[in-house]
Specification:
There is one protein chain. Helices cover about 40% and strands about 20% of the residues. By secondary structure, the chain is an alpha/beta fold. The strands form 2 sheets. It has a 6-stranded mixed beta sheet, with helices on both faces. A 6-stranded parallel beta sheet has the order 9-8-7-10-11-12, sandwiched between helices. Strand 1, helix 1 and strand 2 form a beta-alpha-beta unit. Helix 4 crosses helix 5 and helix 4 packs across helix 9. The chain binds NADP nicotinamide-adenine-dinucleotide phosphate (NAP). NADP nicotinamide-adenine-dinucleotide phosphate binds next to helix 5 and helix 9. NADP nicotinamide-adenine-dinucleotide phosphate (NAP) binds next to helix 5 and helix 9.
Length: about 290
């Protein structure tokens, strides 16, 4: 593309940002849609995030993605926060407005769109959610918002699962999230579940790790969605498939969180055929790295 005096700038702030796949999503979209826009990763040193947001506003940066470790730290620096993002307590997308940046959480909308594309339902489902960290907490909010029947939230540290359950059930006004210790999985009632793997266990280079390896656990899972996409097929996914379930990795979640951010920045609706082109580029880029 040719950069000129009118080129809009979007970017990513985080630490580190060197391995991000987000430029593939946004720069491909700009090219497919004929937008005069460029997306650049900006590494932000610890302690400098307020300077980064202020500077971006002054430079009229159209939009930003926010990644680890600033997803919650930026909340106090925003002019406005979308309701879902406020409930989750984390944002990953900032949109520039006249009064400053407005924060959104497109990670969760992205996960939801990825699930819809794959034909996975949350509504009225009984769900097992592994983990209670930042990502799992957001998934719990999403499940409650979309009308899940029950979410058994299993975590190594019970306190954290209890805190998330209290918070999500409070917002939902009903008992959706049931917090449990990881090793209490045998207490989950018999039945068939959607399971979301939201811990960091199994992330490369520790590909052989998984939080629960008991085959009896996997007999209960009709669909397993791992938020991890590196490795391409996690141990959790292998165990789900080995017991007859369908398994998905987190790359489509990454794809759609980016697409939704792009839609917010540019006030457009991205077509599914363009999403597919980007997905193929992401997969190629991922396999090269
Ligand atoms: P986090 O806040 O650090 O939470 C980590 C979670 O993993 C906690 O529940 C933690 O349990 C659990 N855990 C860590 N080590 C463990 C161990 N040895 N045994 C049992 N449990 C363990 O991380 P996060 O931000 O939620 O991210 C979680 C995963 O989601 C990451 O792998 C990340 O790559 C992925 N993710 C993917 C996308 C996407 O677009 N696809 C987006 C966001 C995140 P404790 O509470 O007991 O410490």
């Amino acid at each position: 593309m040719e950069i000129n005096g009118r080129t809009s700038v979007c970017g990513l702030i985080g630490h580190p940002v060197e391995h991000t796949l987000s430029p593939v999503i946004h720069n491909t979209l700009a090219s497919l849609l004929g937008h005069d826009l460029v997306y650049v990763p900006f590494p932000v040193e610890p302690g400098r995030v307020a300077d980064a947001i202020k500077g971006a506003d002054a430079l009229q940066v159209l939009g930003l993605n926010v990644t680890v470790p600033y997803k919650s730290a930026v909340l106090d620096l925003l002019a406005e926060i979308d309701t879902l993002a406020g409930n989750i307590g984390a944002v990953n997308t900032l949109v520039r407005t006249k009064s400053g940046y407005k924060g959104y959480n497109t990670d969760m909308e992205g996960l939801y769109r990825a699930m819809q594309i794959e034909g996975i339902k949350i509504e009225k489902e009984r769900i097992i959610l592994l983990g209670a960290g930042g990502a799992a907490r957001a998934v719990a909010h999403l499940c409650a918002l979309k009308g899940a029947d029950t979410v058994y939230m299993l975590n190594r540290t019970l306190d954290k699962a209890e805190q998330v359950a209290e918070e999500v059930n409070g917002v939902a006004g009903r008992q959706v999230v049931c917090p449990m210790l990881l090793q209490e999985y045998t207490r989950i009632p018999d039945g068939q579940y959607l399971a979301v793997q939201g811990t960091s266990v199994g992330l490369a280079p520790h590909d052989d790790r998984v939080v629960i390896s008991d085959p009896a656990f996997y007999e209960k899972i009709h669909t397993g969605f791992d938020l991890i996409y590196n490795p391409w097929e996690t141990r959790f996914m292998q165990l789900v498939t080995a017991h007859g379930g369908r398994a998905y990795n987190g790359l489509k979640m990454l794809l759609y969180q980016g697409i939704i951010a792009y839609e917010l920045w540019n006030d457009v609706q991205v077509k599914e055929q363009d999403a597919q082109i980007i997905y193929e580029r992401l997969e190629t880029q991922f396999r090269k790295s």
